[in-house]
Design brief:
Order of helices and strands of chain A: HHHEEH
Largest sheet of chain B: 6 strands, antiparallel
Strand order of the largest sheet of chain A: 1-2
Largest interface: A-B, 24 and 40 residues
Helix content of chain B: under 10%
Number of helices of chain B: 3
Strand content of chain A: 5-15%
Oligomer: heterodimer
Shape of chain B: globular
Radius of gyration of chain A: 17 Å
Helix content of chain A: 25-40%
Distance between the termini of chain B: 39 Å
Strand content of chain B: 35-45%
Amino acid sequence: MSERASPEAAQVLTRRAFARMVAAAGAAIAFAPHEILLSETMPSHNEAIVSFHMDRPYLDRSGTAIPYYPPAGARSAQFAAQLSEEEFRRSYVYA
Amino acid sequence: MVDFSNQPTMKGFFAPTRFEADVYDCEVIGKVPTELNGAFVRLGGDWLYPPKFEDDSPFSMDGYINMFRFKNGIVDYKGRWVKTPRYKADRAAHKQLFGKYRNPFTDDPSVKGLDRSVQNTTPLAFAGKLFTLKEDSLPYEIDCNTLETVGPYNFHGKYKSLTFTAHPKIDPVTGEMICYGYEAEGLETNDVFLYTINKKGEVTRELRFKVPYVSMVHDISITKNYVIIPIFGFVSSMERLKEGKVHWGWDDTKPAMVAIVPRDGEAKDIRWFKGPSRATVHTLNAREEGNKVIFEAPIYDSNPFPFFPPIDGSKWDPTKAKAYIRRQTFNMNSKDDGFTEEKLFEMNVSDLGRVDDRYLTMPYRYAFTAYGDKQRPFDEWKAGNLGGRVNNCYGRFDLATGKMNSFFAGDTHSLQEVCFVPRKNGAEGEGYVMGMASNYAEMRSELIIADAQRLEEGHVARVILPFRATAQVHGRWFDESELPFA
């Protein structure tokens, strides 16, 4: 199961703010004692995934490495951003 | 097990829907004009099961027919699969048994010889019956009230071609349907059978002739005395099919060829004209002026379909896959096989254009089609980034003045093919434009109705579906007098 940031946090955290936090956190981690990074509070197979929806970050700490996908009903054309014109029209010539 | 998770383009709004639906008394924004009594019928495709091959064409999607039934300002929706033998075989096997587009050599051996049509292109109402059309097979009759599939139809055994076009034309003066089949005697045959069918549904004339090379013959136009039949660079061969390829490849060396066929003539009377490489997939209208035949259509510069790739191994070129409204003029007194061509509007448009069908064969003024206006806003925050690939406007193109009027669908919407619904006894262009919009923010489809003479004022009504409708190829309005609606 993915774990979302709390609604309160999501209201104040933008992508830009989160990026600044990550930079600060990265510096902290670099200087943190090794045993803190291996805390039992974190999953043993620790591959935290950060994903965004509506410009809000979600941190998956489940260790399953599955990013959060936005719910149906919003930004439903977003997946097409990564497709080339050829890739898109191969499937949706009359979309 | 049905698994679409490894289909990279079947995500988000574009994921298969796969269900049948009834929605009674649909939600409406605005007010549906009470003068609209009949049905807007859409035909297109959805994948019942994932395609067998990654490089197959979307034209292999299973046929899905859906109808907005209008009655006294109330609209009901109904959607059903077109239940062909192919659909039934796949359902029984719980998987896709059929291979690439119009290539039976790529099918599972268990379905050898079965009708492999998917009936996903155009709805037709004619002689009191509702049909689905797909150019690789006979029409399928559909019950206009239940949308259940009746089966293939051959006009009392008098229609002999094995195939039937997705774009027959109905002469508004005589009520006759001019229709045809190509590859009429089977795969890769160069035969075209051209028919006239009277308004009772009786075949009154058949003309058989051959095309210079086997090519897509997707749409035609008619005048009072002629049938205009364009063919262009899509080529095919039995060798190609045995190599396991999709039916069509693009040959850039092939000229665009246009047959002008006398409606009452013989094969020997056909004139073939040649022009530069083009792709005329859909047409608008044609007429005669003296000894000239004037033909207009949204014509592509080159191959519009990347899934029918160039046969020389070169890459498909998206910059040439643009359609412009063009006029081609054929001098029936000329001694050579050339014709003239003009670009009537400089903007590229959707090639799914329509006219007021009451003016087919005649001089006319207005053409309607969708287009993408990049100056209009698109809200990527709500809808997602579609990379500018939206048709956000319907245009009314005035062929007399060169002016264009525009309907804007909204900043999270993209429009499918436009349909023009004439007002009874109204002048040309008087009536409504109608068409389906994809709302990428709300993950739903909306049927747009706008006054064709006041497009800038926005919609008159939007009929809201609480889900995504299946992808459409063509949609048609059928007045309640055309079909035995309950």
